[in-house]
Design a protein that fits this description.
This protein is α+β, with helices and mostly antiparallel strands. The chain is built from 20 helices and 32 strands.
Length: about 800
């Protein structure tokens, strides 16, 4: 019974009648607490039905302190004289002891061989950093046999170079001996023999004897080069996402690819694009027989990139058998190494064409050519070369090169498309803006237009100078919401509408009301998604050199600035109406008298508004620049742009400067005409005398006829007061005003009609004629050209 751990006697009724000391140690229950009680009270759970019929098994008991105890038991029945069962003797055997470890001396030879032949480099050094033991992988790593290394000091320069890596490893060895703590040491460097880059992870731990004293240091070295290169490739790819395509410029995008990969991935890189990529054309329908590529970027580790055969900006024709053309034709990367016919022919051709760079190409041994393809279209090719780096390109490198080229190709295509759209929008806008401002004497003008250089594209800013009747002139600036071709087209429609409404000679506030209706109609014509993009601001001003009055109205546009002679530039207080397209809100006109020689500045919001600038500060800078003394208008334009604008404007800028002139009393003659036909001759005679005083005798015949017809019509069909005014400007202007708002119109007189030919004669004899509404009626006017003074 020495092997029995515990014994319990249970009678036929299931009552405990015997309890051993071993049972007490296993369960914690004393005999006096258990004997005479049911055995089921000791169970932690109800036993399964199979356990009730079996004589061996595992039962779960509840220890006296409450925790669960599982015990393997065996039951032996107790029989009476009649053979009937009187109970059971239940015994529990002790757990077998754990196996005794074998001593080191008894270690199987297979274990020794496994460690010695392990692919992981393993070695042991004593506390003075001298080799005690090395496996085969460690010997291969050190380039010596175990017999040569045993007893040698690790820092011996005959074994390892005296460099940063070796010194760092030696410090880690001493640290483990000093602190008795395991350490991990990560290293990266070039192999002294082949010059290739390797990454190692070393586990260094203290080795103790039976008394716990450190007797040596164990080392296990893991080659992490592949993982290290994979991390570097991933880091390079992540960096490409942030550094390639920062601008919408084709050439700059190619340069960013070169700057990223040299020298981290390649010793020399070139990027060549097809000719049409650099222009505004679409790709050709069929590929040309000869592939002509345009060198847009290249780079190397040597200053000036002496390895390059093709200079920047030059073109080159590539034969079909060359790796770049193969890559473009097959649509995939082509990897060639030294010794392959295609590679050797390529290098020989390069050396023959440009022998000066031959010494720098010495040692080139691996090349990857990758097509630049975006949206299914080949744009060009990138060439990656390794010269000084000893590792040839691998398939993983080819995959990385394809990813980098794909990123660059998409950015190049985006830049190309942006340049094409920008060029189209700019050409459209230039065709819609006034190329040469019309001649007029009311103001002297100068203007500047700067298209937006941001990724948003060309905007819809415009300006115009429109000669009006009576020597007046209209000045207009406007800005369409949004950017791109759509905004430029909308700008052209609005500018045409302003000119049409100006020909009707509407006052500024009425003109803006009609223009607002037009913008609303344009929005109704657009798709629902584009309605919000149809909107504009506009400032329209009319200057009269005779009265020297300026009348202007604004539709959500910045107010103009004015500089009176001898004064200080300031903004004009204008009633700011709603932007065009809002609809239903009125516009108010503002009038002011200007001294002769006043300077007006009309501009779009791109001049003063920017998210990084304060508008009040910008307008103050504008006024300060207008105060430039004695400068021409062109010089003032340049000074305003230089002073107010940042280096990179975020929006289009239109600037229109106008210096006012005045027509003195000597160039204007006015007569009040009584509403009596008898006074037509008197008025006509007074006009002829005025022409004679001006020395315009050659214009007498036509002017006499025009004055007679217009005054007669005013007396016959108009209402008083009637007034005749002659203006001598660049043209001779005859104006007849009356109190009626009914506008005249041409009509064709029949052969026997006595009247109806007056206005037709006026239209035939003068350069142009028309009518305009005034506050008290209307004015009929006609202009005759005058010889240049």
């Amino acid at each position: 019974m020495k092997q029995v751990a515990a014994a319990v006697i249970i009678d036929a009724r299931g009552m405990v009648t015997g309890w051993s000391e071993g049972a007490r140690r296993l369960t914690g229950h004393r005999a006096e607490d258990v004997v005479g009680r049911p055995a089921t009270g000791l169970l932690a759970e109800n036993p399964p039905p199979s356990a009730m019929t079996g004589l061996t098994g595992v039962v779960a008991l509840r220890h006296r302190d409450g925790h669960r105890v599982e015990i393997a038991v065996s039951a032996c029945p107790v029989l009476g004289e009649d053979g009937a069962s009187r109970g059971f003797v239940v015994t529990a055997l002790p757990e077998p002891p754990p196996p005794r470890p074998q001593p080191v001396a008894e270690r199987p030879a297979s274990l020794e061989r496994a460690i010695r032949q392990a692919s992981v480099s393993m070695s042991a050094l004593d506390t003075n950093q001298r080799y005690l033991w090395l496996n085969e992988a460690a010997c291969d790593l050190m380039g010596a046999t175990e017999q040569d290394l045993i007893g040698q000091f690790y820092g011996d320069t005959n074994l390892v170079p005296d460099d940063r890596i070796s010194q760092g490893f030696l410090r880690k060895l001493r640290q483990v001996v000093r602190t008795a703590t395991p350490v991990r040491y990560e290293t990266f460097g070039k192999d002294a023999n082949d010059g290739r880059e390797y990454a190692w992870s070393l586990e260094i731990w203290p080795v103790r004897d039976d008394r716990g004293a450190i007797t040596s240091v164990g080392i296990a070295a893991f080659d992490n080069s592949e993982q290290h290169w994979s991390r570097r490739r991933l880091a390079l790819l992540n960096e490409a996402a942030a550094t390639i395509g920062t601008t919408l410029d084709v050439v700059r995008t190619a340069e960013e690819l070169v700057e990223l990969v040299v020298p981290r991935f390649a010793d020399f890189v070139s990027v060549d694009l097809l000719d049409w990529v650099l222009g505004a054309d679409e790709p050709p329908a069929a590929p040309a027989e000869e592939v002509v590529l345009h060198r847009v970027a290249h780079g190397s580790g040597n200053e000036g990139t002496p390895e390059a055969v093709i200079p920047l900006g030059a073109k080159d024709t590539y034969p079909p058998s060359t790796p770049p053309v193969r890559a473009m034709a097959e649509g995939r990367a082509v990897l060639v190494n030294v010794g392959e016919q295609a590679f050797d022919d390529w290098v020989a051709e390069r050396n023959a064409r440009e022998p000066v760079g031959r010494p720098y190409r010495q040692g080139v041994h691996s090349m990857v050519t990758v097509p630049l393809r975006a949206r299914g279209t080949i744009l060009g090719v990138a060439v990656f070369l390794r010269i000084t780096r000893p590792d040839p390109y691998t398939e993983d490198d080819v995959t990385l090169a394809e990813e980098l080229a794909s990123r660059a190709a998409v950015c190049v295509d985006n830049a190309r498309r942006f340049a094409r759209e920008r060029s189209t929008a700019l050409a459209l806008q230039h065709s819609l803006l006034p190329r040469g401002l019309p001649g007029q004497a009311a103001v002297e003008v100068a203007h500047r237009y700067l298209p937006c250089g941001s990724v948003a594209g060309i905007g819809g800013d415009w300006f115009d100078v429109i000669p009006l009747s009576g020597s007046r002139v209209a000045l207009c600036v406007g800005d369409v919401v949004g950017h791109g071709i759509q905004s430029s087209a909308t700008m052209g429609r609005l500018r045409t509408a302003v000119r049409t409404l100006a020909d009707v000679d509407l006052p500024p506030d009425e003109l803006l009301t009609h223009l607002d209706d037009l913008v609303t109609h344009l929005a109704d014509e657009e798709d629902e998604e584009d309605v919000a993009e149809v909107g504009a601001t506009c400032l329209y001003a009319v200057y009269d050199p005779v009265s020297r009055r300026l009348t202007l109205a604004s539709a959500g546009h910045p107010p103009p600035a004015v500089l009176a002679p001898g004064g200080v530039a300031e903004l004009i207080e204008v009633s700011a109406g709603p932007p065009l397209g809002v609809g239903g809100l009125p516009f108010e006109a503002t009038e002011l008298q200007l001294p002769e020689g006043s300077l007006l500045a009309l501009y779009t919001d791109g001049l003063i508004e920017d998210r990084d600038r304060d508008i009040d500060h910008a307008t103050a800078e504008l006024c300060r620049a207008l105060n430039l003394p004695g400068a021409s208008l062109d010089a003032v334009c340049d000074a305003v742009l230089k002073t107010v604008l940042p280096e990179q404007p975020g929006d289009d800028v239109a600037l229109l400067l106008a210096r006012t002139h005045a027509l003195g009393a000597g160039r204007v003659a006015t007569w009040d005409v009584p509403p009596d036909p008898a006074h037509v001759a008197v008025t006509r005679q007074a006009a002829m005398e005025q022409l004679a005083a001006w020395g315009l005798d050659e214009e007498t015949f036509v002017t006499e006829l025009v004055v007679s017809e217009l005054v007669t019509n005013a007396i016959r069909y108009g209402e008083p007061p009637i007034q005749l005014r002659l203006i001598r400007d660049r043209a001779l202007i005859v104006e007849v005003s009356d109190g009626s708002s009914t506008s005249p119109h041409l009509r064709r007189a029949h052969a026997y009609d006595e009247g109806g030919r007056g206005l037709l004669l006026v239209a035939q004899l003068t350069q142009r004629w028309g009518s305009r509404q005034t506050g008290t009626g209307k004015t009929i006017w006609a202009e005759q050209p005058l010889p240049a003074e």
